[in-house]
From TrEMBL:
A GO biological process held by the record: isoprenoid biosynthetic process
Protein name: Prenyl transferase
SUPFAM superfamilies: Terpenoid synthases
Single annotated GO MF: metal ion binding
Residues forming coiled coils: none
Keyword annotations of the record: Chloroplast, Isoprene biosynthesis, Magnesium, Metal-binding, Plastid, Transferase
Native source species: Periphykon beckeri
Length: 316
Protein backbone atom coordinates (compact mmCIF):
# COMPACT_ATOMS: atom_id res chain seq x y z
CA UNK A 1 0.00 0.00 0.00
CA UNK A 2 2.96 2.23 -0.71
CA UNK A 3 0.99 4.65 -2.87
CA UNK A 4 -1.44 5.57 -0.07
CA UNK A 5 0.96 5.80 2.87
CA UNK A 6 0.62 9.60 3.03
CA UNK A 7 -3.19 9.35 2.97
CA UNK A 8 -3.24 6.68 5.71
CA UNK A 9 -0.95 8.79 7.92
CA UNK A 10 -3.24 11.79 7.45
CA UNK A 11 -6.27 9.56 8.14
CA UNK A 12 -4.83 8.59 11.54
CA UNK A 13 -4.28 12.25 12.38
CA UNK A 14 -7.78 13.24 11.27
CA UNK A 15 -9.47 10.47 13.26
CA UNK A 16 -8.19 12.06 16.47
CA UNK A 17 -9.64 15.43 15.47
CA UNK A 18 -12.96 13.94 14.33
CA UNK A 19 -13.71 12.37 17.71
CA UNK A 20 -13.10 15.62 19.59
CA UNK A 21 -15.59 16.22 22.41
CA UNK A 22 -15.68 18.43 25.47
CA UNK A 23 -16.48 15.44 27.66
CA UNK A 24 -13.12 13.96 28.80
CA UNK A 25 -14.57 10.53 29.64
CA UNK A 26 -16.22 10.13 26.24
CA UNK A 27 -13.09 11.38 24.49
CA UNK A 28 -10.83 8.97 26.40
CA UNK A 29 -13.16 6.07 25.68
CA UNK A 30 -13.34 6.86 21.96
CA UNK A 31 -9.60 7.50 21.76
CA UNK A 32 -8.85 4.13 23.37
CA UNK A 33 -9.32 2.16 20.15
CA UNK A 34 -7.94 4.73 17.74
CA UNK A 35 -4.69 4.85 19.69
CA UNK A 36 -4.45 1.07 19.30
CA UNK A 37 -3.99 1.64 15.58
CA UNK A 38 -5.93 -1.10 13.82
CA UNK A 39 -4.89 -2.48 10.45
CA UNK A 40 -6.99 0.17 8.65
CA UNK A 41 -7.99 -2.40 6.04
CA UNK A 42 -11.30 -0.72 5.22
CA UNK A 43 -9.91 2.80 4.65
CA UNK A 44 -7.05 1.34 2.60
CA UNK A 45 -9.51 -0.44 0.29
CA UNK A 46 -11.55 2.76 -0.15
CA UNK A 47 -8.44 4.80 -0.95
CA UNK A 48 -7.09 2.22 -3.41
CA UNK A 49 -10.45 1.97 -5.21
CA UNK A 50 -10.56 5.78 -5.38
CA UNK A 51 -7.21 5.81 -7.21
CA UNK A 52 -8.19 2.90 -9.45
CA UNK A 53 -11.41 4.40 -10.81
CA UNK A 54 -10.35 8.06 -11.04
CA UNK A 55 -9.37 9.54 -14.38
CA UNK A 56 -5.98 10.75 -13.14
CA UNK A 57 -5.11 8.32 -10.31
CA UNK A 58 -6.10 10.77 -7.56
CA UNK A 59 -8.25 10.62 -4.42
CA UNK A 60 -10.82 13.34 -3.82
CA UNK A 61 -11.28 15.12 -0.49
CA UNK A 62 -14.73 13.50 -0.19
CA UNK A 63 -13.31 10.01 -0.74
CA UNK A 64 -10.67 10.61 1.92
CA UNK A 65 -13.41 11.71 4.30
CA UNK A 66 -15.44 8.60 3.39
CA UNK A 67 -12.44 6.42 4.37
CA UNK A 68 -12.37 8.16 7.76
CA UNK A 69 -16.14 7.77 8.22
CA UNK A 70 -15.93 4.04 7.43
CA UNK A 71 -13.22 3.55 10.06
CA UNK A 72 -15.23 5.44 12.69
CA UNK A 73 -18.31 3.31 11.96
CA UNK A 74 -16.21 0.14 12.14
CA UNK A 75 -14.66 1.22 15.45
CA UNK A 76 -18.06 2.11 16.92
CA UNK A 77 -19.31 -1.37 16.06
CA UNK A 78 -16.27 -2.93 17.79
CA UNK A 79 -16.98 -1.01 21.00
CA UNK A 80 -20.56 -2.33 21.04
CA UNK A 81 -19.45 -5.84 20.02
CA UNK A 82 -17.05 -6.02 22.95
CA UNK A 83 -19.82 -5.15 25.39
CA UNK A 84 -22.21 -7.73 23.89
CA UNK A 85 -19.54 -10.47 23.75
CA UNK A 86 -17.85 -9.42 27.03
CA UNK A 87 -14.50 -9.26 25.21
CA UNK A 88 -11.71 -8.02 27.50
CA UNK A 89 -9.17 -7.00 24.87
CA UNK A 90 -9.29 -5.51 21.40
CA UNK A 91 -6.35 -4.76 19.08
CA UNK A 92 -4.04 -5.94 21.84
CA UNK A 93 -5.23 -3.49 24.51
CA UNK A 94 -7.96 -3.53 27.14
CA UNK A 95 -11.38 -2.96 25.59
CA UNK A 96 -13.31 0.22 26.39
CA UNK A 97 -15.84 -1.43 28.72
CA UNK A 98 -13.07 -2.98 30.85
CA UNK A 99 -11.22 0.35 31.15
CA UNK A 100 -14.43 2.22 32.01
CA UNK A 101 -17.70 0.27 32.25
CA UNK A 102 -20.47 -1.05 30.00
CA UNK A 103 -22.51 2.16 30.18
CA UNK A 104 -19.59 4.36 29.10
CA UNK A 105 -18.66 1.90 26.34
CA UNK A 106 -22.20 1.89 24.90
CA UNK A 107 -22.32 5.70 25.05
CA UNK A 108 -18.87 5.91 23.42
CA UNK A 109 -20.05 3.66 20.60
CA UNK A 110 -23.21 5.77 20.18
CA UNK A 111 -21.06 8.91 20.15
CA UNK A 112 -18.87 7.50 17.38
CA UNK A 113 -21.92 6.52 15.31
CA UNK A 114 -23.29 10.05 15.79
CA UNK A 115 -19.99 11.64 14.77
CA UNK A 116 -19.80 9.48 11.65
CA UNK A 117 -23.37 10.48 10.75
CA UNK A 118 -22.54 14.16 11.10
CA UNK A 119 -19.51 13.92 8.82
CA UNK A 120 -21.50 11.75 6.42
CA UNK A 121 -24.22 14.39 6.15
CA UNK A 122 -21.56 17.00 5.42
CA UNK A 123 -20.52 15.15 2.27
CA UNK A 124 -23.75 16.64 0.81
CA UNK A 125 -24.40 13.58 -1.32
CA UNK A 126 -27.84 12.01 -0.67
CA UNK A 127 -26.98 8.77 -2.51
CA UNK A 128 -23.87 8.28 -0.38
CA UNK A 129 -25.85 9.06 2.78
CA UNK A 130 -28.46 6.44 1.85
CA UNK A 131 -25.80 3.87 0.98
CA UNK A 132 -23.70 4.32 4.13
CA UNK A 133 -26.68 4.68 6.49
CA UNK A 134 -27.75 1.14 5.60
CA UNK A 135 -24.55 -0.17 7.22
CA UNK A 136 -25.68 0.85 10.72
CA UNK A 137 -29.10 -0.77 10.17
CA UNK A 138 -27.34 -3.94 8.98
CA UNK A 139 -25.09 -3.97 12.07
CA UNK A 140 -28.14 -4.04 14.32
CA UNK A 141 -29.79 -6.76 12.21
CA UNK A 142 -26.63 -8.86 12.38
CA UNK A 143 -26.32 -8.53 16.15
CA UNK A 144 -29.96 -9.54 16.65
CA UNK A 145 -29.55 -12.55 14.37
CA UNK A 146 -26.39 -13.59 16.21
CA UNK A 147 -28.05 -13.12 19.59
CA UNK A 148 -31.17 -15.17 18.89
CA UNK A 149 -29.13 -18.00 17.36
CA UNK A 150 -26.44 -18.28 20.04
CA UNK A 151 -25.78 -21.85 21.21
CA UNK A 152 -28.19 -23.10 18.53
CA UNK A 153 -26.52 -26.14 16.97
CA UNK A 154 -29.10 -26.19 14.17
CA UNK A 155 -27.74 -23.00 12.60
CA UNK A 156 -27.10 -23.38 8.87
CA UNK A 157 -24.28 -22.18 6.64
CA UNK A 158 -26.83 -19.97 4.81
CA UNK A 159 -27.85 -18.29 8.08
CA UNK A 160 -24.18 -17.81 8.96
CA UNK A 161 -23.47 -16.14 5.59
CA UNK A 162 -26.48 -13.84 6.01
CA UNK A 163 -25.37 -12.83 9.51
CA UNK A 164 -21.79 -12.32 8.28
CA UNK A 165 -23.03 -10.02 5.53
CA UNK A 166 -24.91 -7.85 8.01
CA UNK A 167 -22.09 -7.74 10.58
CA UNK A 168 -19.04 -7.42 8.32
CA UNK A 169 -19.57 -7.45 4.56
CA UNK A 170 -22.20 -4.69 4.43
CA UNK A 171 -19.67 -2.10 5.63
CA UNK A 172 -17.20 -2.98 2.87
CA UNK A 173 -19.85 -3.44 0.15
CA UNK A 174 -21.57 -0.12 0.85
CA UNK A 175 -18.29 1.78 1.38
CA UNK A 176 -16.88 0.52 -1.92
CA UNK A 177 -20.09 1.47 -3.72
CA UNK A 178 -20.11 4.92 -2.08
CA UNK A 179 -16.51 5.44 -3.26
CA UNK A 180 -17.69 4.92 -6.84
CA UNK A 181 -20.71 7.20 -6.30
CA UNK A 182 -18.38 10.00 -5.16
CA UNK A 183 -16.37 9.46 -8.35
CA UNK A 184 -19.62 9.91 -10.34
CA UNK A 185 -18.98 6.48 -11.83
CA UNK A 186 -21.56 4.62 -13.91
CA UNK A 187 -24.08 2.49 -11.99
CA UNK A 188 -22.37 -0.64 -13.37
CA UNK A 189 -19.09 0.42 -11.77
CA UNK A 190 -20.91 1.17 -8.50
CA UNK A 191 -22.44 -2.31 -8.55
CA UNK A 192 -19.10 -3.95 -9.44
CA UNK A 193 -17.46 -2.47 -6.38
CA UNK A 194 -20.46 -3.24 -4.19
CA UNK A 195 -20.00 -6.92 -5.13
CA UNK A 196 -16.22 -6.62 -4.72
CA UNK A 197 -16.70 -5.26 -1.19
CA UNK A 198 -19.34 -7.88 -0.36
CA UNK A 199 -17.08 -10.78 -1.35
CA UNK A 200 -14.06 -9.25 0.40
CA UNK A 201 -16.15 -8.77 3.55
CA UNK A 202 -17.50 -12.32 3.58
CA UNK A 203 -14.05 -13.77 2.93
CA UNK A 204 -12.57 -11.58 5.68
CA UNK A 205 -15.22 -12.71 8.21
CA UNK A 206 -14.79 -16.41 7.41
CA UNK A 207 -11.01 -16.05 7.82
CA UNK A 208 -11.53 -14.22 11.13
CA UNK A 209 -13.69 -17.12 12.30
CA UNK A 210 -11.02 -19.65 11.32
CA UNK A 211 -8.37 -17.66 13.22
CA UNK A 212 -10.68 -17.61 16.27
CA UNK A 213 -10.16 -21.39 16.40
CA UNK A 214 -6.56 -21.70 15.18
CA UNK A 215 -4.71 -18.64 16.55
CA UNK A 216 -3.49 -17.50 19.95
CA UNK A 217 -4.87 -14.42 21.72
CA UNK A 218 -1.58 -12.51 21.30
CA UNK A 219 -1.79 -12.83 17.51
CA UNK A 220 -5.48 -11.94 17.34
CA UNK A 221 -5.34 -8.90 19.61
CA UNK A 222 -8.45 -10.27 21.36
CA UNK A 223 -9.23 -13.47 23.31
CA UNK A 224 -8.94 -16.62 21.19
CA UNK A 225 -12.03 -18.83 20.81
CA UNK A 226 -14.22 -15.94 22.01
CA UNK A 227 -16.83 -16.62 19.32
CA UNK A 228 -16.98 -20.28 20.27
CA UNK A 229 -17.24 -19.45 23.98
CA UNK A 230 -20.07 -16.97 23.36
CA UNK A 231 -22.04 -19.45 21.26
CA UNK A 232 -21.58 -17.45 18.07
CA UNK A 233 -21.87 -19.92 15.23
CA UNK A 234 -19.02 -19.70 12.75
CA UNK A 235 -18.18 -21.61 9.57
CA UNK A 236 -15.69 -24.05 11.19
CA UNK A 237 -18.15 -24.94 13.96
CA UNK A 238 -21.18 -25.36 11.68
CA UNK A 239 -19.17 -27.54 9.27
CA UNK A 240 -17.77 -29.64 12.14
CA UNK A 241 -21.26 -30.18 13.60
CA UNK A 242 -22.17 -32.17 10.52
CA UNK A 243 -19.54 -34.73 11.48
CA UNK A 244 -19.28 -34.68 15.29
CA UNK A 245 -22.53 -34.98 17.26
CA UNK A 246 -20.51 -34.78 20.51
CA UNK A 247 -20.22 -31.06 19.85
CA UNK A 248 -24.00 -30.72 20.21
CA UNK A 249 -23.82 -31.80 23.85
CA UNK A 250 -21.03 -29.30 24.55
CA UNK A 251 -23.05 -26.52 22.93
CA UNK A 252 -26.13 -27.44 24.96
CA UNK A 253 -23.97 -27.08 28.07
CA UNK A 254 -22.74 -23.71 26.69
CA UNK A 255 -19.08 -24.68 27.17
CA UNK A 256 -19.35 -24.34 30.94
CA UNK A 257 -15.80 -25.54 31.58
CA UNK A 258 -12.49 -24.49 30.02
CA UNK A 259 -11.55 -28.09 29.32
CA UNK A 260 -14.83 -28.51 27.41
CA UNK A 261 -13.98 -25.48 25.26
CA UNK A 262 -10.48 -26.83 24.58
CA UNK A 263 -11.93 -30.25 23.73
CA UNK A 264 -14.38 -28.64 21.30
CA UNK A 265 -11.49 -26.79 19.60
CA UNK A 266 -9.56 -30.06 19.25
CA UNK A 267 -12.61 -31.82 17.80
CA UNK A 268 -13.06 -29.05 15.21
CA UNK A 269 -9.35 -29.19 14.28
CA UNK A 270 -9.52 -32.95 13.73
CA UNK A 271 -12.30 -32.64 11.14
CA UNK A 272 -11.86 -31.09 7.70
CA UNK A 273 -14.12 -28.19 8.67
CA UNK A 274 -11.27 -25.65 8.85
CA UNK A 275 -10.13 -26.56 5.34
CA UNK A 276 -13.73 -26.34 4.10
CA UNK A 277 -14.05 -22.90 5.72
CA UNK A 278 -10.80 -21.85 4.02
CA UNK A 279 -12.30 -22.99 0.71
CA UNK A 280 -15.38 -20.82 1.39
CA UNK A 281 -13.16 -17.82 2.15
CA UNK A 282 -11.02 -18.40 -0.93
CA UNK A 283 -14.09 -18.68 -3.15
CA UNK A 284 -15.27 -15.24 -2.01
CA UNK A 285 -11.83 -13.64 -2.31
CA UNK A 286 -11.39 -15.12 -5.79
CA UNK A 287 -14.77 -13.72 -6.86
CA UNK A 288 -13.56 -10.27 -5.75
CA UNK A 289 -10.26 -10.75 -7.60
CA UNK A 290 -12.09 -11.77 -10.79
CA UNK A 291 -14.02 -8.48 -10.75
CA UNK A 292 -10.72 -6.59 -10.75
CA UNK A 293 -9.05 -8.82 -13.34
CA UNK A 294 -11.93 -9.06 -15.79
CA UNK A 295 -13.24 -5.51 -15.69
CA UNK A 296 -10.38 -3.31 -14.46
CA UNK A 297 -7.27 -4.99 -15.87
CA UNK A 298 -6.68 -1.99 -18.15
CA UNK A 299 -5.99 0.12 -15.06
CA UNK A 300 -3.20 -0.03 -12.48
CA UNK A 301 -4.94 -2.54 -10.21
CA UNK A 302 -1.78 -4.16 -8.80
CA UNK A 303 -1.95 -2.66 -5.28
CA UNK A 304 -5.65 -3.39 -4.83
CA UNK A 305 -5.05 -6.97 -6.03
CA UNK A 306 -2.12 -7.40 -3.61
CA UNK A 307 -4.24 -6.06 -0.76
CA UNK A 308 -6.99 -8.53 -1.70
CA UNK A 309 -4.56 -11.47 -1.79
CA UNK A 310 -3.19 -10.35 1.61
CA UNK A 311 -6.62 -10.91 3.19
CA UNK A 312 -6.62 -14.51 1.98
CA UNK A 313 -3.03 -15.17 3.04
CA UNK A 314 -3.87 -14.43 6.69
CA UNK A 315 -4.78 -18.12 7.14
CA UNK A 316 -1.86 -19.61 5.19
Amino acid sequence: MQSIQTELKKLNENLQKMIATENPILYSAAEQLFNARGKRIRPAIILLISKLISANNTISIEQKRLAEIAEIIHTASLVHDDVIDNCDTRRGIRSVHTVFNNKIAVLAGDFLFAQSSWYLANLNNPNVVKTISKIITDFAEGEVQQGIRSFNYQASVEEYIEKSFYKTASLLACSCKATAILNKSHIKVQNDFYMYGKHIGLGFQIIDDILDITSKSANLGKPAASDLKNGNFTAPLILALNKKSKLEKMINQEFQFNQTLNEAINIIKKTNSIQKAKDMAEENIQLAIQILKKKYSNKNNKELLLNTYYLLNRVY
